[in-house]
Specification:
With 969 residues, the chain is α+β, with helices and mostly antiparallel strands. 22% of the residues lie in helices and 46% in strands. It contains 16 helices and 41 strands. It has a 35-stranded mixed β-sheet that branches. Strands 36-41-37-40 form a four-stranded mixed β-sheet. A two-stranded antiparallel sheet has the order 38-39. β24 and β25 form a beta hairpin. The relative contact order is 0.03.
């Protein structure tokens, strides 16, 4: 009975348990999953306003495993989240024991998240967070936090799609596959779990995180590694920077330690490493690459957020290539414009006053094998400067700007040259101590700058320097440089005709001292080897040196005009101890002449001592050279070319200069070639207080003019005669032309004044030659020797004429190049009467007897001639005059014997015969008389005097003037 009862009871219990088990199984395994599958989308749509769908939900009642398949959440038919499979296992015993939620394994397969940020910055995933109810009571903190634990969480083959439309262009990226494995997660204190996250982005980036994590309090330690990250995929996130990243592969890893249990949270990073390979960055302003970098490596990174301290062991930038570009408008392409200065309110709001300042330190910064190019198109012709093999090494860098930093930089200049800078730099206050070294740095890249400013072309040239730069802090500011410089193999051309302009083999400044505050520049010695300069005058008579600079643009003329005239208040004091010139040369050419002229100075050597810009310091100059290889050049004196008020006391000598080389100038301005001759010039210039006093002493030796040349610029003077008048007995011409003037006078031009003085000298001599001769012997008027007076019909020189011809002979002896032309002149009427008078007197003397009356003789002579009696009677009547002694009313006529005798004389003279060649013979006799008077002194050769064919003239007061003319062969 008891057994049956027991069996019934057992059967009832089993049946009850079976029914309960069946009911449990039916509710959890069938009814609840279906309810959840129906209600879950509805609740999601009600609370989140999202469209939701679930393919299936399963609950395993006895294993307490929950499965969800095919979950999808969408907003406006755009999927936000989808999940292929979710499986969660509940650990019931552990949950009851700990009175919390204890989960075993959570598995999420094929989780897809679609994250989108629109143009206004709204994130679509925020729709997954239910809005808070305004009527809900505030949550109260509990003294016992809720316990939870997860034994294992696995996310397999997850995928995240990201679309960021806030940047331009829009950024699209994906994370696939995303695998996350977490172990032993728990809310219990001091319970650590492991974590392992591996993700692969669609662009090939690998993310690997491995470490330990505890949730109460939250703390995490581990190592994060990122590899194969292409920067170009993330460049839209850098839209605030004016660059575009075209290529770059990032490798990074760091150890982290996060402790959030205490306030403030403790976050630190250590042993960080970042490496970027094959970086390629360009600016949108230029299509080509502007920055490429083979490798950027940052080692030993550490960061402590709580202590606001960051530290980097070293930064290495290896094999970089940087291109800097400037367009034709003068804008540097790709460089950001100057940011606007934030207002005080903005700055104050962005940085609270209580924020702990950050400290940072970089152990070293190294740049290896860089190439930098600067391209400037703003100068008209593009200018390019390149540096190769650039290397830079620094010491420790930190936020402490008062600590000195060692900086070493070196590189190679293209096309040639190397430079190096070793320095100690203190940023604040700025203090620099630097050793600078440059060797054979080519100047050719600066050619476009010269072309922009002038008509000068640089064919070659290199610069070398070695020295020390010192920059004192601002508290007691000073700047100084002590070193040496040289400029070698410089060669400049004039681009207008491609002719050499300036060159030298070597310019050496053995020592240079520059100092700022107080200002001074001191150069003990400058050595100039093989200098050459060319000065030319073009067809428009413009000197090449005066037009080398290009005219300023019209837009900048007003600005440049207003500033160019403003001299500094305190000019830099300059002192140059010595300038030595070795084997210098200079070429001069003048193309404005009909016959182009060229000359050269060579073998120029000498020195200038004590060049100083101070007013009371005078430099001494001594230079010697050769002119056209044969003539001698000497320059010596004192001057102060660097002073504001010019002082000059300089002598220049040119000796043994072949005058034939000056034929182009003689042909142009004198109208003659030069056959031979030499030139000596001794010039002395004295300038003080802008007043010029110049002495120009010129000696022409054995000059001979040649063939005449037709030239519109010729002075049209009897130049040969002028030279003959100036040339002494030794064949020399000495000219002394003093010139004075004010350099402040804008109309004063020394060359013009000198040429005018020369022309006036030759004009005075050539147009008044006898005045010049009279000046040679002194005490004689030119009129006494420029003509000779003869009595009518006579060829005799009186005493005065004899004396004058003797003086003329002395003057001609002093000017052996002169010729004298004697113009034999006669007056037909006066000389004929004079010659007849001479014949009459001679015959009358023969007819006269001691006792005879001349009147009676002349009456008898006239009466014997044909018609003489009639003529005699007429002459007698003409000589009758009233008696002056008679008192009668009509006094009787008496004979005026004196008048009668004169009438008889005139009548007989008129009928005296004269030979046909008498006048010509008289003229020749006069010339012979003059010639004999001059030659008779024994100082003038006969071949220097010429008689000109007789010509007619008119007597003046009974005197015949015979003019003399000076000439030159």
């Amino acid at each position: 009975m008891d057994r049956k009862r027991t069996i019934r009871r057992v059967t009832l219990v089993v049946a009850t348990l079976g029914m309960l088990a069946g009911l449990y199984t039916a509710v959890l395994g069938w009814w609840l999953p279906r309810q959840l599958q129906q209600q879950l989308p509805l609740q999601i749509e009600k609370n989140l306003h999202l469209q939701a769908s679930v393919q299936g939900i399963k609950i395993h009642p006895w294993s307490l495993q929950f499965e969800l398949n095919g979950l999808e959440l969408a907003q406006q038919h755009h999927t936000l989240l989808s999940l292929g499979h979710l499986q969660v296992g509940l650990q019931l015993a552990s949950s009851l024991w700990h009175r919390g939620l204890s989960l075993g394994t959570i598995t999420l397969d094929q989780l897809h998240v679609h994250a989108s940020l629109d143009e206004q910055g709204h994130l679509n995933l925020l729709a997954l967070i239910p809005p808070s109810s305004p009527t809900a009571p505030p949550t109260r903190p509990t003294s016992h936090p809720f316990y939870w634990s997860v034994q294992q969480l696995d996310l397999n083959q997850g995928e995240i799609d990201v679309l960021d439309q806030e940047v331009h262009p829009a950024l699209a990226s994906e994370v696939h596959p995303l695998n996350i494995h977490l172990r032993n997660l728990s809310a219990l204190p001091d319970r650590e779990g492991s974590m392992h996250v591996f993700a692969e982005l669609g662009d090939g980036t690998h993310l690997h995180l491995q470490g330990m994590m505890a949730s109460s309090p939250f703390q995490a330690t581990g190592r994060l590694a990122i590899s194969h990250l292409p920067l170009q995929s993330w460049s839209p996130l850098l839209h605030t920077l004016p660059v575009t990243i075209r290529r770059g592969l990032v490798q990074a890893q760091v150890d982290f330690n996060i402790q959030a249990g205490k306030a403030p949270a403790q976050i630190s990073l250590s042993h960080g490493e970042i490496q970027i390979d094959n970086l390629d960055v360009q600016t949108p302003s230029h299509p080509g690459p502007q920055l490429t970098l083979q490798q950027l490596a940052v080692h030993d990174i550490s960061l402590n957020l709580s202590q606001h301290h960051a530290q980097v062991g070293s930064v290495l930038l290896n094999q970089g290539h940087l291109e800097i570009l400037r367009n034709a408008q003068g804008q540097w392409l790709g460089l950001p414009s100057s940011p606007s200065t934030p207002t005080k309110s903005t700055a104050a709001a962005s940085s609270p006053a209580t924020t702990t300042p950050w400290t940072w330190q970089v152990g070293s910064l190294d740049l290896n094998n860089w190439q930098i190019g600067v391209h400037d198109a703003s100068l008209g012709s593009p200018m390019a400067m390149h540096v190769q093999n650039l290397a830079l090494t620094t010491g420790t860098l930190s936020q402490n700007l008062s600590q000195p930093i060692s900086v070493t930089m070196m590189g190679n200049w293209v096309p040639q040259g190397a430079w190096k800078v070793q320095s100690q730099v203190t940023p604040s206050p700025l203090h620099v101590e630097a050793d600078l070294n440059a060797a054979n740095v080519s100047l050719l890249p600066l050619q476009p700058l010269l072309t922009h400013l002038s008509y000068i072309s640089l064919r070659q040239g290199s610069f070398s320097s070695q020295g020390h730069l010192h920059l004192q802090p601002a508290s007691s500011p000073s700047l100084s440089y002590l070193g040496q410089m040289s400029l070698d193999h410089l060669s400049l051309d004039d681009t207008r005709d491609q002719s050499p302009l300036l060159s030298w083999a070597h310019l050496d400044l053995a020592k240079l001292i520059y100092q700022k505050t107080p200002d001074r520049l001191t150069i003990p010695r400058i050595a100039l080897q093989d200098p050459y300069a060319r000065i030319g005058i073009n067809h428009q008579r413009i000197i090449n040196l005066s037009t080398l600079l290009r005219p300023a643009p019209a837009s900048s003329s007003k600005i440049s005009g207003s500033t160019a005239t403003q001299a500094p208040a305190h000019p830099l004091p300059i002192h140059i101890g010595e300038v030595d010139v070795y084997n210098g040369a200079m070429a001069f050419s003048d193309l404005s002449l009909q016959m182009p002229f060229s000359a050269g100075i060579n073998q120029l050597q000498g020195k200038a001592l004590n060049l100083d810009s101070r007013q009371n310091q005078l430099a001494q100059v001594q230079l010697d050279g050769r002119l056209n290889h044969y003539g001698k050049v000497n320059i010596q004196g004192t001057l102060n070319p660097l002073a504001k008020d010019l002082f000059l006391n300089l002598g220049m000598g040119f000796h043994d200069v072949e005058l034939t080389s000056l034929t182009p100038y003689a042909a142009q301005f004198a109208g003659y070639r030069i056959n031979q001759g030499k030139l000596d010039m001794d010039l002395h210039y004295h300038v003080e207080h802008q007043q010029l006093e110049a002495e120009n002493k010129v000696t022409l030796d054995q000059i001979q003019l040649g063939q005449s040349v037709s030239s519109p610029d010729a002075i049209h003077l009897p130049l040969k005669l002028a030279l003959a008048l100036l040339k002494d007995a030794n064949g020399n011409i000495d000219i002394d032309l003093p010139i004075t003037g004010s350099l402040d006078n804008p109309d004063f031009r020394y060359g013009r004044v000198l040429w005018s003085a020369v022309v006036n000298l030759f004009k005075k001599v050539a147009l008044s030659p006898f005045h010049a001769l009279a000046h040679l012997i002194g005490g004689l008027d030119e009129s006494a020797i420029k003509q000779v007076s003869f009595a009518a019909g006579s060829a005799e020189l009186d005493a005065s004429a004899q004396k004058n011809m003797a003086a003329l002979s002395q003057a001609l002896a002093k000017r052996p190049s002169l010729l004298l032309r004697i113009h034999t002149m006669t007056d037909h009427q006066a000389d004929t009467y004079g010659l007849k008078t001479q014949t009459f007197n001679a015959e009358l003397a023969q007819r006269m007897q001691p006792a005879n009356n001349p009147e009676t003789i002349m009456e008898s002579w006239l009466r014997s001639s044909p018609g003489g009696a009639v003529q005699l009677k007429k002459l007698h009547e003409l000589a009758m005059v009233p008696d002056p002694n008679s008192h009668a009313q009509q006094p009787p006529l008496i004979l005026n014997h004196q008048d009668y005798a004169q009438r008889l004389r005139d009548a007989l003279i008129q009928q005296t015969p004269l030979g046909a060649g008498a006048l010509r013979a008289l003229a020749q006799a006069r010339s012979e008389a003059i010639k004999s008077a001059i030659i008779g002194q024994g100082q003038v050769a006969d071949n220097r005097l010429f008689m000109v064919d007789p010509a007619a003239t008119q007597a003046i007061q009974g005197q015949i003037q015979v003019p003399l003319e000076l000439d030159a062969p």
